[in-house]
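So, who can interpret the following?
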Amino acid sequence: MTPSRKTHTAGALLALALPLLVVVPVALESAAQASSVGAGCAGHYGWPVTPFTEQHPVRANFGDPRTRFVGPEGEDALLTGNGTFSFHQGVDISAPDGTPVYAVSSGTVVRARGGRVTVDCGNGRSFQYWHIEPAARVGQHAIAGKTLLGFIQPKREHVHLTQLEGDRAINPLAPAHLAPYDDSTAPRILRVVLRPAAHRHLHVVVDVVDTPPLAVPGRWHGFPVSPALVTWRIERSGHVVISGNARDVRRFVPKNDRFWGTFARGTHQNWPIFAGRKLQGVRGAYLFRLTTGALSAGRYSITVTAGDTRGNRGGRRVEFVVDVSGLSAS
C-alpha cells in the first residue's frame, strides 16, 4: 500500500528551520540492441534501462542533499543536530522493481556485489550502478546497451547511476553525457529570508526547488529536486556591489565537508531520516546560504537566480534598506 504523504509535516519542518527576522514572500527496444549514442567511454551515452534512446524520469538530481539526523524529528536535530550529511553523487532513474539494468559504457566489470555493479572503461572513466541485484561477474567484458548488469532490487523503484572521471563524480545530466535528456522546467524560489549580522553584514537564506522534467511514477511522484546553480547579486543605485555563487553542481559536487557551507541549516532530503526512522511522504527542503560583506547605510536590492544544467532559470528580486538601526524590507 502506498503510504499517505505527510505534507503538513514537511511544512512544520520548514517552519522550524526558518526562525525569521524578515521573510519576503515570493511573488522497448531489444536488449540486444546497443544504444545509438555511443559506447559511453567518451562523450555521451544512453540510458541504463530500456528503451536506451528515450528519456526516463529522474527522481533525484546530482548534488541533492542526503541527510540522516541522529536525533529525533524536531528543531534541535534540524538546526544543530549531528548526523551524516552528503551530496548525492549521481542521479536516481525511476523504473519498476525487477527492471533489467544494462551497461551504458563498454568496459570491464570490476565490482558486482552488495547491490552495486561497477564498469571501468580503462581510460579513467567508470560507471557505478546502485540498488541492483548483480547478474554480471567481476572480470566480465561489458558492452554498452547489450550487457545485462542486474535487476533493480525490491522496494527501490530506481537505479542510481554515478559517472566517475578518475575518483571524481561528474554530473550525468550535464550536456554531452546522459542522452537524450531535455529539461524545460525552471527552478522556483519559494522564499527569501534576510537576517542582519554583525557589522552590517547580511545573512540570506533562499528556499529553492526544481521539478523533474518527466513526471516520476509511484511513491516519489511529485517530489522536488534541488537546482544545479544558485547565484546572487546585491545592487545599489543600479550598480552591483556584491555578487557570488551559492551553489554550482552543473559538473561537479563539493566535498561532503562543505555540506553546511552550501546548504543552510533546516535543509533535509525527500523522506528525511531522523533517529533511524524515515519520514515517509515528507518533501525535501533545499535552503541555500548567502553571506554578504559589510554594507553601508542605504537602499539596496538583492536578486537571486536558480538554474539547471539546461539553462532554465528562475529568479526573485527583493529590496531592502540598511540603516543605523539594522535591516528592513521595503
